[in-house]
Predict the structure.
Amino acid sequence: ELFLMSYADIEMKVVQWGEARGIVQNSDPYAQATKTQEELNELIEAIKSGDRAAMADAYGDILVTLVMGCACADLDLVECFKGAYEEIKDRKGYLGADGIFVKEV
C-alpha cells in the first residue's frame, strides 16, 4: 500500500520532531541558519563529486534546517515560500549561458 504524505504533513512531523528534541524551544534562527549553511556546504561538495545520494540527503537536510529555523522564529515556511513566489511570479527574463539571470524591464 502506497501512503502519500503531503509537504504539510512532513513539515508538521519535522516540527514535532524538533519540539520533542528541544530544538524549537532551545535553538534560535541564527543557529539554524548556521546549520543550513553547513548542509549547503555538504550539498555543494555532493554536486562537485556527482554523488546523487549525498545530494538528495543534503537537500532534505537543508529543508529540515529551514523548517526548524522558521519554527524557532515563529514563521511559517510555506508562507515564506508563497511570499517569495509572489515576488518572482511576474518577473520576465532568462538565464544566460553564463548562468546569470537577465531581467527584462
